[in-house]
Structure formats: structure tokens, C-alpha cells
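Newbie here. two chains, one complex. Structure please?
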Amino acid sequence: MKLLVKGGTVIDPANKLYQVADIFVSNGKISAVGQDIREIGAEVINAKGKLVMPGLIDMHVHLREPGLEAKETIATGTRAAAMGGFTGVACMPNTKPVVDNRALVEFVKTRAESGGVVNVYPIGAITKCSEGAELAEIGDMKQAGAVAVSDDGHPVMNAQVMRLAMQYARMFDLPVISHCEDLNLVAEGVMHEGYYSTVYGLKGITPAAEEIMVARDIMLAELTGARVHIAHVSTAGSVELIRMAKKKGIKVTAEATPHHFTLTDEAVGGYDTSTKVNPPLRDAVDVRAVKEGLRDGTIDVIATDHAPHTSEEKDVEYNYAPFGMVGLETAVGLAFKELVAPGILSVEELVRKMSCNPARILCLDKGRLDIGADADITIVDPELKETVDVNKFVSKGKNSPFDGWELSGLPVVTIVGGRIVMRDRRLIV
Amino acid sequence: MGLNRKDLLGMKDLTAEEIQLILETAEPMKDILRRQIKKVPALRGKVVINLFYEPSTRTRTSFELAGKYMSADTINISTSTSSVVKGETLKDTAKTLEVMGADVVVIRHSAAGAPHILAKHLSVSVINAGDGFHEHPTQALLDMFTIKEKKGRIRGLRIAIVGDILHSRVARSNIWGLTRMGAEVRVIGPSTLIPPDIEKLGVTAYTSPEEGLRDADIIMVLRIQLERQQKGLFPTIREYARLFSLTPERVKLARPDVIIMHPGPMNRGVEIAPEMADCVQSVINEQVTNGVAVRMALLYLLAGGGNPHETVG
């Protein structure tokens, strides 16, 4: 099958390309990038006025399979990714059972190949059952295709276990993705600790609960020489710690979610449980700091922490609802609204944070439009406006506080390995 | 004129005019309580459901009597566990009550925001009878009614709230209501029980009762729960009592005509010295009576409509 993406503005930071060009795709690979390419028999995608970029990669997604299929499956989650302009997702291991061995990594890969529509990169657990006690078979999982290890959702509280995990993972050059949260400090908190937790009468989570663990893991990264990636950075203090660590040359990278750069803790006001996320929505100072961290390069990656839940789990009292919101289908629109439109990030920088950098951190041969590379391409219409309607989400999870928001700057085509999986805001798989 | 709102979820959103209306409406209600036959037909044919997910004697009985004195049919649903533990969502419980024909649902719940969920899904009135650490608006209204009765005004009074401010819905509701009506509010407690940014609510925070009680017109003492000590928020009940208990010596720091309030139930000898609970300045029992009057007024304003004096008189 041949594809010709015509007349779009091609943004390929890896090749320092930012210009109107055509891209010719054949046999799933990029075979030419240039001016006025003519190919008889190729399916033409008119990209005039649109932004053509290497396929976006979301390195923090919960696909919920195996075991939690009522929330999401690999089939529905990868379709939501395609709708959101993502050609690849890295999925967290906190499923039932936890992905902590080769068989489960292989299961995820097999399910992704048979039922998924975008690339799926499994992340293995750091410790067996993510219990924070004994290391999981990290080497075996790496050989089976795991791209990183993480006990996301269950912070490794024991510093010695984390240190050993880093020392061990370094042997395989696997990044350790750390969900930074001191559970003793969290102490049953459900939202950011501050003025609004006082007003809403909910238990607060101090920023220190995150920052103490960020500081610890930075020190352990320095000690072990391992690559540490800080998941979902939410506080000004964390941004500052990571900034200092990078200056010292410590191998630390970081991500921020669209909800943490868009919403503040004030959004918890109506007790809408879709605002209950971990780490919690922080205050305006933190949101500004996260944006500044994205702008100055302290934060390398935009990742969604897409965390679907069922309505019966979320339609309850705020204290009892599980943490998490979906993000795949609103990420690009929110990034354009909050970062590109106000001039915090250029489109090129956005492409780095949503494609090049996640590919680099996970050691994927992706995130670039080289000749011969896999034809993973995302096309965004910067002018297209759409009102978010959670009931139209492809994801099983409807838990989004952005319902009813008007977003502009939306993915209009998703191409995975030369195959169009989304076109004109419709799935075609 | 009635209240121009479906629900009473908190003091934060009430205007001074609305508070005024509720307090004024409670006055004739209190007269009814003094009669030999304490019953008026104002809410005949109306159904008030008390949905209590948390143990309560005072507030539940107060709402029940308020409904009964107004001739409403009142039903109590008490459950020691949350709807989630029972396997039914609060939303489903709410719908069930609505289709049974409730006119007012009074809810007490340990989770902040539970009344808001109910209000969102119900077309009938919802009254918050205490949600988590969030609000307890009827307690604040009865406290304000009591203050007004004793002092003739709220504006300009210096009111000290002593105790576990962090976990207190009574403190939050009183702070919103009293500051809106022009009082000067101070909160006093150990630093581990003062919530973050509390001063942004327009109060002054003190960790020393010796400073905070000085020249107070009103002292409100809050209940200390044993559980807080178990969570390490202060070392011992003994130390708490030594540092914060309302003793006769500490009361002397306040104005000579100070009145002492407590929302109950009291831990005598912990947050309040027994002799202070029973002294002439204590209005703790009157608070309870006034609670019934204020709740009658609220039920009337939310479910009754019409002119209270016509129907009630």
C-alpha cells in the first residue's frame, strides 16, 4: 500500500525539518520526503494547512488489560490512542495480575498485535506484584520486550529496594519510571493540600509527599548511574529538584500530564470525581512551574497518565472514588490550548515532547521521519475546533473533567506503520 | 418570601440576606416550641427523609422533631456504613428516595461533598446535616441564632473558636457565616489541627488560647476526637487538655459577659472543664433548643413557601 501525504507543514525535529513538504510511504516505511512528489497509484492525503509530524508516543498509559477489562482493554485503549493522534503507547504494569514476568509482557504484546491498532510498548514492574519488596525478573522482561520498569501507582517505599532496582536495571539500560509519592505523608489525602482542601473539607496531600521521593530518586540515580524518569511531575518543588539534578548531569528525565499543566485544585470544587487524580491537581503556582519546566526543558515529555475507570467506580463520594482520569483523546488539544497558543512551546518543541523524547527515553527507533523509518505519522489541524463530549470517547473511560471544553488543534490523521487508523476524527479500523 | 434556592449545602454560598431571612424565620418557630401544643400544619403532606450515614443523636433528633412540629411526615434512615460499602451508589440511593416521594432529604455523611452528589441527582431539596470536614450549615445557623438572641447582634462581635479546626465542619460553616455577618473570627488550636491557609477565609489563627481568647465576646469550643491523637496529631489527651481546655482561668481572659458554646457532644475534662460547661455563661443547652427552631425555619423555607406568619400563626 502506498500513501502520499501532500502539502503539509512537516515538522521533524530529528532531521531539523520544518517546511511544507510531501511524504511518500510505501510498504509501511517512509520512502521519500520532499517537494512535489508525484506517485501514481498512491492514496493521497491532502495535508495542506496541517501539521505533519512523527507519530506521537504516550509513554504513560493504563490499558488495564489483563484483568481490569471493564475499565479499558488493549483494543479500546489503542483506539482511543489513535483518536488522540498517538501511534504508540507505553502501558503501565498495574493490571490484574501485575505485569511482573515474561509471560505477562508477552501476553500484552500478543494482545496488542491481534487486537490493538497502535504500537504498544509494555512496561514491566520493578518488584514482584509491585509490592515493593523483591525485584521482578527485569532482565527476562527486557528480553521479552519491556521498554522500562515501573511500580506506577505503588511507589517503592523502601529506598534500598529502589537503589537495587536502579543498579539492576542499569545493566540492561532500562529506564526506571518512578511514581514519586511518600505514602506516609499522603495519609489518606485525596486532593492537593492548601486553601481549597481547607474550603472543600477534603484531606490534603502535601507537595512534599512527591518532592521527598523525587529528591530520593535523584540521589539514587546519582548513586547508581541508572536512568530515572520521574512520572507525572506536579509540583514546583519537583520541577526545581529535577532542574538542579539535570544541571549536575544526573541521568534524570521527567514528564508532565495535560491535566497538571491545565487545571488547578480549584477544579475539585463540585466534587466531580474525574478531578481526583494522583498526584492531585495542584495550585496555580505549581501549574505555572510545570509550564515553565516544560518551556525550559526541565520536563522532557508530555504523557497523559490515561487512567480509565468505570462510571460505577467514579460516580461515588469523592473520598471513595479511585484516582485517575482519561487523557488520550484530549491531550493534543489541551497541549495546543495551554502551551502552543500562549507561546510556551513552539510546535516543534511540542513534537519533541510528545514524540522524539519519549522515543529516546524508551530507546525506540521512532520519533523521526527518516527515509526507511516506520511510517508512524500524526497529522494535526491547528485550526480545527471541537467540543469535548466524553460520551463520544472511544475509550471505555468517560472520567474526564474536560467534558464540554472547546479545544482547537486536533489530530486529524493517525498513520501507524503506513496504515491509516484514524482519518478526519473517525477511526477506520 | 421563601429562600430562592433548592438546597442548603453550605454557608459559603449563602448571602447575608439569606442568613438574615433564615434567622428571622426561626424566631416565630421558637415561639411554637414554647407552646403547650407544639404542632403547626405548615408542612402537612410533606415528606422529610433523614438520611444519616454517620452516627448522630442531636442533629437527627433535631431534624426529626423540627419536621414533626411542622406536621411533615419524617422518616429516618440510619446506616453505619456508606452506600459504597453496602454496594449501592449514593446516586442510586438518591433516586430511590426521590421516587418514594420525598420533598426534603436531610443528609449526614462522613464524606465531604456527599450532599452535593445528592443535590445534583435530585429534583427535591437537600439539606446538608454535616459532610466530612466540609460544612455543617444548620449548626452554624443555630449558633448564629443563639448569638443574636444573647447579644442582640453578630456584627462587630469577637468570636473565638477553640479546638480541632482542621477536622471541623462546624468551624468552617461558622467561619463563613459569621464573617459574612460582620463578626471578627479567631480560630485557636494546636498547629497540627489548624488547616492550611485558614486565614484566607478571613480569620486570625492562634496556637495560644491565652492570646486568642483575650476580650472574646463568644467562645465556641469544639469536640476533640480521640482518633486524632491516635493518628499522632498531638501527643496525649492530657497535654491537649493542659494546653487548650477551656478552664475558668482562660475564660477570665475573655470579656466579662462572654458566652460559652459547644456543638456537642462534649468531652468534659478534655476540651472543656466541667464547671465551664455548666456555668451561667454556658448556652450549650439553649443551642440545642434553637437548633430545632432553626431547622423548622429551614424546612419551612425550602419545602413550605408562602408567608410563615400566616401559616404558622
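Moderator note: Residues 208-224 of chain A form the longest helix (17 residues). The two ends of chain A are 16 Å apart (CA to CA). Thread marked as resolved.
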